[in-house]
């Protein structure tokens, strides 16, 4: 959801320069601005910026709570009357544009609290494994696995086998290229629950990226046998096909290419990958 809202600030002279409080740097990803007051860039046709507070709803994910608008004047930043009477919360996605995090001076200028009073309601369960796992999930799902680690590791210290936690933690480690750590988590997860094929999917990915191809193949075979999800099966199969393409092992490649086509939908991305590998087999 692209949010291009309007706002701008006004600053009294209280020991800092006007340029310090007026300047807005729209260089921050929304997932790096959790629990912060932020402003969105304005459209070329607008004169104001939207501003508000970003937080994570453990169910809905990254959320922008609209506060009001501000504009720049010769005297500084000026807060404008709120456009809406009712609360306005907007869900943020990967398409959200970069935002500006408001400085302490700008927050003071707008006469804002350090954080909204309502925020406590969203953090009342913040030390529970469920809350921490859900926060980690939203970071992972939005491509910020580096930020997912902290809540996930906190949850792991409390209850390592909490439902869904080991998958999220291993997913984060794999996304960050920390494959040995992912393996350590997944081996313990499988010892506790050997029926979860998602553990095998992640473990196969870890071994594949450590170039432990035989181990990856064994694990992927187990995962495919357990899974009743053709998409997941095709993902595991195409990963092995890619490995054998890179090794130029035609017999093994053909085996896994056939499995990929068996489970992948026609003209799907994974089917197209197989076609690409075959067309480029003799190219270095």
What does this structure look like?
The protein is α+β, with helices and mostly antiparallel strands and 284 residues long. The protein folds into two domains: 18-122, no CATH class; 129-279, Tetratricopeptide repeat domain (Serine Threonine Protein Phosphatase 5, Tetratricopeptide repeat, Alpha Horseshoe), CATH 1.25.40.10. Helix content is 48%, strand content 13%. It has helices at residues 18-22, 104-109, 119-122, 129-141, 145-158, 165-175, 179-192, 197-209, 213-226, 230-247, 250-263, 269-279, and strands spanning 36-39, 48-57, 61-73, 76-80, 89-91, 100-101. Strands 1, 2, 3, 4, 5 and 6 form a six-stranded antiparallel β-sheet that branches. The radius of gyration is 24 Å and the shape is elongated.
Keywords:
disordered N terminus; Serine Threonine Protein Phosphatase 5, Tetratricopeptide repeat; 12 helices; single chain; elongated; alpha+beta; 284 residues; 48% helix
In brief, what are we looking at here?
Mean pLDDT is 90; it is low at 1-20. α9 packs antiparallel against α10 (230-247). With 284 residues, the protein is α+β, with helices and mostly antiparallel strands.
Set out the fold topology.
Layout: H1 18-22, E1 36-39, E2 48-57, E3 61-73, E4 76-80, E5 89-91, E6 100-101, H2 104-109, H3 119-122, H4 129-141, H5 145-158, H6 165-175, H7 179-192, H8 197-209, H9 213-226, H10 230-247, H11 250-263, H12 269-279
Antiparallel strand pairs: 1-2, 1-6, 2-3, 3-4, 3-5
